Predict the structure.
Amino acid sequence: MHAPDEGTTGSGPARMPEAELAIDGSFVRDLLERQLPQYASRRVEFVANGWDNCVYRLGEDLAVRLPRRAAAVPLVDSETRWLPSLATVLPLEVPYPVHRGEPDGRMPWAWSVVRWVSGAPADHATAPSAAEARSLAGFLGALGTPAPHDAPVNPFRGVPLAARDAGVRRALRRVDHPGAERCLAIWEESLGLPEYRGPAVWVHGDLHPANLIRRDGRLVGVVDWGDLTAGDPACDLQVAWTWCDGPGRAGLLEAAGSDGLTVARARANALAHGLACLAGSADNPRMAAIGAATVREVLADHAG
């Protein structure tokens, strides 16, 4: 599930952006009949709406992923271009595209059919085990390799912390959090960290428990690759706070072997992510819960 970006304004938590296209099961089935009739007889089942896309399961092993607003169209392009090749080197399952759908008379944008990653999102269960933390560290290492010069660029993910400053301050004005003053102090302290100067590496861009899939008690997959971009690896290391508790975080950071500055930037990215979730989830209690848990872990870790 895609978490909100930092471009919202106003007071109080924001609602999810309105869909610019009315999509339901009948719409999806009609779309398949027009463009991919070999799948038209399969069961179509609604899975989730995100800020940018909606997902329908297609039979047992596939899913249909469709933009619900024009801003999501570049995300489809990134996924369909880059994810098939990245999937070949990653140690966890990903929903790589198997078909790219094209705009037609009823569907104004490109869309995709992807592999279904079977299991349950990690926010439906307990904190990660030590084995899962090591597995996630292996995934981060396999993904975080230098990206090509034409890799996608995201204005909110993998960027210097200063580029997120305005968004963090807007989020803090939106939320009524008892730790707001401490959050601001931690954030302002983080702005003094040296910027990342290494090569821009591949980052998923939205690593939180709703995008991590468990099956049979272990971590097996990572979904929702719309924010795939090149940038600072600390962006993805934020998962040490968005998903992990103290012991899991220690295991993940040890297995990842990240230096202290990367860890500090990662914690700041996690804080920005958690606040964005709180500020953008007025009608999404699931993402609000992830945001609250992330901020709680950052505050606890900083106090320690």
